[in-house]
Amino acid sequence: MTDPLSRPQRTGPLTGLRVLDMSRVLAGPWSGQLMADFGADVVKVERPGVGDDTRGWGPPYLKDAAGKETGEAAYYMSANRAKRSLTLDISTPEGQKTCAALAGRADILLENYKAGGLAKYNLDYDSLKAANKRLIYCSITGFGQTGPYAARAGYDMIIQGAGGFMSLTGERDDLPGGGPQKGGVAVSDLMTGMYATVAVLAALAWREKSGLGQYIDLALLDTQVSWLANQGMNYLISGEAPRRAGNAHQNIVPYGVFPTRDGHMILGIGNNSQLTKFLEVAGRAELMEDERFKTNSLRVKHREAVVAIIGGITAMRDMDEWLAELDPAGVPSGPINTLDRVFADPQINARGMRVKIPHALGVEVEHAGNPIKFSASPVDYPRAAPLLGEHTDEVLGEWLDLDEDAIAALRQSGAV
User: Fold this and answer.
1) How far apart are CA 373 and CA 187, in angstroms?
2) DSSP string, 150-218
3) What are phi and psi of 380, to 5 degrees?
4) What is the pLDDT of residues 72-87, one digit of tens each?
5) Where are the alpha helices (DSSP H) in 302-403?
6) Between 20 and 30 A from 275 (CA), which of 111, 154, 243, 401?
7) What pLDDT is attached to residue 4?
8) Distant-in-sequence, close-in-space partners of 219: CB < 8 Å, separation ≥ 6
9) Is residue 345 annotated as a catalytic residue, yes or no?
10) Out of 3.55.40.20, 2.40.160.20, 3.30.10.10, 3.40.50.10540, which CATH number does the structure's domain 4-226+349-413 have?
């Protein structure tokens, strides 16, 4: 068992908090990882011999020090760094008892079983709160604990569709490649994970005032609808459902992807001042006198004509030539980078967004870093995603004061 004093001391703002992470796949694990980045002791509870399903969601898989492919999938590693792994079979009486004891020592419990799924193991909030009145218990489901869809399983792409996101994403139906399109990453899961973290932090603030924990009911569908943001408000104000517009912005013109002589670039022109600067760089300042260009409302009204004119201008130069002039002029613009260019970008590296983290297999694993920069309590990365059950004995000893004989008995019973 590792001596706690031998481990690196954490520096983040949540140092000292204990999180029992009973979630799987992405939304819950993403929240747990954020809290782990912030210094919390996050213990991931996994099924013995199996673990989180995403451990097998590859390739790609991590390679060990000898260059041999392991069973550690990149997908799993993306959402579970800085955690410790404990294996526990909650279908057994001893597993349930042990899990309840761990919850009794936790500040926060994360879970994403189906609505009410942990009640049959006596591990729901109502079963646990009496023994730990300060426990913050966060349940993540597809559709929430109430309502006609509560019993349904919810997966990211299903939620992207049901919550309206895919109706807004993709090329227009009348153009080649038109039709609904999901996001390039699991945006509903990831946003729910972030909302879960915000909810937990708010509950911690409430606990400071009241001395009490509370239950958090968080649904992927609710989250998806909430962050429809301006598009949701566009509908609620106008009564008209926004349509897919490809890379165009529903409310701003010119804003989107434009052709260059050697590819494409992004223009993010949000006001007349920026448009004037762009047209000056382009040598077409006279276009600001064109009635169609004079205000954003008029540009939106004459979208097709304005976009065609701007596209004709941008197609006359190479992307790098444009970007070299537009940035100093104060015109929001940028490239469309592939991931190799993203992680080679000097700004990304200067900001610490490509980090190396030690792994139990004796290698360093590169990760995309946490984007939050604290001045007094910085994020740190003590370990990459754990091996299955890597810290079982360690956690049982630290959290529950179990000795080697007690842990051996649990192992003999099949609970761990």
Assistant:
1) 23
2) TTS---HHHHHHHTTHHHHSSB-TTSTTBS----SS-HHHHHHHHHHHHHHHHHHHHHHHHS---EEEE
3) -135, 165
4) 999 999 999 999 999 9
5) 303-314, 319-329, 339-344, 346-350, 392-400
6) 243
7) 52
8) 140, 141, 142, 143, 144, 154, 192
9) no
10) 3.40.50.10540
For 189-243, how does the pLDDT look when each residue is reduced to its tens digit (9 = 90+)? 999 999 999 999 999 999 999 999 999 999 999 999 999 999 999 999 999 999 9
Q: Which two tokens stand for residue 368?
A: 């995309």
Single-letter amino acid code for the residue at 119:
A
Tokens of 400: 């529950």
Q: Where are the chain's structural domains?
A: 4-226+349-413, 255-337
State both tokens at 387: 């091996």
- Indicate which residue of 41, 52, 189, 222 is catalytic: 189
List of residues 6+ apart from 369 with CB closer than 8 A = 351, 352, 353, 354, 355, 379, 381
- One-letter amino acid at 193 equals G
Q: Which of 216, 225, 217 is nearest to 164 (CA)?
A: 225
Per-residue confidence band for 7, with pLDDT thresholds at 50, 70 and 90: low
Burial 223-235 (b: 16+ CB within 10 A, else e): bbeebbeebbebe
Residue 25 to residue 23: CA distance in whole angstroms:
7
The domain defined by 255-337 carries CATH number 3.30.1540.10: yes
In angstroms, how far is CA 44 from the centroid of its own chain?
17
Tally of CB atoms within 10 A around 382? 18
Q: What would the two tokens of residue 396 be? A: 């049982």
| Contact present, 220 and 23 (Cβ < 8 Å) | no
Closest residue by Cα to residue 228 from 262, 268, 189, 188: 188
pTM of the model: 0.91
